[in-house]
Amino acid sequence: MNSKFLVCHQSENQTLIAILDENEDLNEIFVSREAALNLDETYSGKIISYHAKLKGYFVETEKGINAFLPSSKKFSTGEKVYIKIKKEARREKQATAELIDAISVNPSFIETIKQKFPFEQKELPSLEFLINEAMEEKLSFLNGAHITIQKTEALWSIDIDSGNSEASFEEINKKAVTLIQKQVKLKNMSGMILIDFAGTKKKEEQENLLKEIKKAFHNDNRTKIYGFSALRLLELKRKSERSDIYDLFLTKTGLKHPLYVSYLIERAVFSSKSGNIKLTIHPSQEQYLSTTIKNQVTIKFNLNIPQDYFELKEN
Predict the structure, then answer these.
(1) 20 to 30 Å CA-CA from 267: which of 22, 75, 249, 280?
(2) Which range in 105-109, 126-130, 235-239 is most confidently predicted, on average pLDDT?
């Protein structure tokens, strides 16, 4: 794949990168945050406690953030260890790590992405546009058919509806497989995924679809395909590594993540031609603002606005 590489945003708090394919369609979004333990990075830490049921240790890292270390090796409380992050934290769940012999200097997040993808630098749509695209729950295709994707606490559900499309169920489902594979990767889905295809009543139709889905996911070693259930739902399970798109950019209550709001504020401030800017925010947002922004604007607090709302006025 001839990917396009784009550094969408970089600040003292976070780096956001979008990867686009050869057609300049969004392929993946990567996020590295200073106040988080990021995938594949290494840290030193000390043992806090042992959890017998989980068969592992809680480790306080050099960042002051805790991770869970599954291990049969015996450690004492306070003992120093070196770990590598194998699964990022997801809301209430802490990051999961593996034991290593020594830490190495973590390469910059940008350099890590460069090593994974061939790229060319290019002027592309804004990150806000790309993130909104990645979080779309309903996708239309084939002149009237659509896919609806929903995330719940227990699983991801994907529903294919023929709508008013004149295409056959076979054509709709075959096209849907391609779109589903792309959405699973883009949204970084993990855990149980249930797919309800259009009109798959016959065993032969299910077998043909199973071949198509296996073909689409053959390079995804995180995904295991279980087949169709008695309710004609295709069951997949995908290993968790990085946070999904909703965990990255939304809070549990559905508001924009404070660091995403921080990015939107920075983008608005840097786009302004005024040297005298008044920024109105909810007080809870202040801690997520970069030092650069705090030095460039006059901040006004308002407890009566949503936590993810801000207003910029040029004086």
Answers:
(1) 22
(2) 235-239
